[in-house]
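STRUCTURE:
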């Protein structure tokens, strides 16, 4: 039952434009992440005391339905981020079953999760932002303290099953970790898989 699914969150941010998908979106950020990135933007997602609230799908819906008019008028909806939202695929699926079906669902993910977590919600999602960090296993491991085999195999599955056109690949230049040449090679590898839309940018370290 949906009431039995409870997930921890670090934030719910309303009225976002152009950063999390089309139209007006609400960013729903989960606590918890498999990575330990050196320049993590949301370190509270890994901290035991970083949980803002724990909610069921129904309780979250009650929080966000206030913006239904904005979502409907602009073609927006909910963006699940974090942390890593795909650690909570069961929650996202349960939420999708009760939300307005006209809302768009966007996922911001590292894709470093088991494939079954991706399969559980892939048909429900209109847009994916996949932050691959770098396709080089050495760069990825140094930056995230994790291997990227799972990321690559999940990308290959998505491309092979017709989801590449729903994916925007975030391809960052990470100071002290990768180079322009690393980014070029990563893009070439991803283009060979079938991905065509890229968001290339520089991490700004403060």
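SEQUENCE:
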């Amino acid at each position: 039952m949906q009431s039995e699914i409870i997930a921890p969150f670090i934030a719910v941010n309303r009225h976002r434009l152009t950063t999390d998908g089309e139209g007006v979106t609400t960013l729903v950020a989960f606590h918890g992440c498999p990575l330990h990135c050196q320049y993590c933007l949301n370190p509270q997602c890994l901290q035991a005391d970083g949980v803002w609230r724990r909610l069921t799908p129904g309780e979250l819906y009650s929080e966000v339905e206030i913006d239904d008019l904005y979502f409907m008028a602009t073609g927006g909806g909910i963006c699940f981020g974090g942390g890593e939202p795909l650690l909570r695929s069961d929650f996202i699926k349960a939420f999708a079953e009760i939300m307005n079906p006209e809302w768009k669902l966007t996922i911001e993910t590292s894709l470093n999760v088991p494939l079954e977590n991706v399969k559980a919600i892939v048909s429900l999602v209109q847009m994916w932002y996949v932050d691959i960090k770098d396709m080089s296993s050495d760069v990825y491991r140094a930056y995230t303290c994790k291997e990227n085999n799972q990321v690559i195999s999940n990308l290959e599955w998505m491309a092979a099953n017709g989801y590449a056109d729903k994916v925007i690949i975030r391809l960052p230049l990470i100071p002290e970790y990768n180079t322009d040449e690393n980014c070029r090679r990563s893009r070439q590898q991803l283009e060979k898989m079938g991905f065509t839309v890229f968001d290339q940018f520089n991490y700004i370290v403060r």
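REMARK: The longest strand covers residues 7-17.
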